[in-house]
Design a protein that fits this description.
Layout (H helix, E strand, L loop, with lengths): L7 H10 L4 E9 L2 E12 L3 E6 L7 E4 H6 L2 E5 L4
Antiparallel strand pairs: 1-2, 1-5, 2-3, 3-4
Length: 81
């Protein structure tokens, strides 16, 4: 069951605060497939935001705010040393 914790406006403001900062992203792809990576939020748009991963992942990935609201995408601020 999916629990709604925040509204879209609160999630957008959280993402805007993390803009251009190092984050740790965890994505639940379903069927027990979970992908985690470090990256940086590079762009924030009205309907989605993009993350540029560090390391072995190439290119940018984009996520919608509703994916965060549903819990399939979790973003945490990190300090990369």
């Amino acid at each position: 069951m999916i629990k709604v914790i925040n509204n879209i406006g609160a999630i957008k403001s959280q993402v805007v605060k993390l803009f251009n900062k190092d984050v740790f992203v965890t994505v639940n792809l379903g069927r027990n497939k979970i992908v985690s990576f470090n990256g940086k939020i590079t762009n924030v748009y009205p309907a989605l935001f993009t993350v540029s991963p560090y390391g072995e992942f190439k290119g940018k990935t984009s996520f919608s705010y509703s994916e965060m609201m549903c819990g399939s995408v979790v973003i945490e601020k990190t300090e990369i040393i």
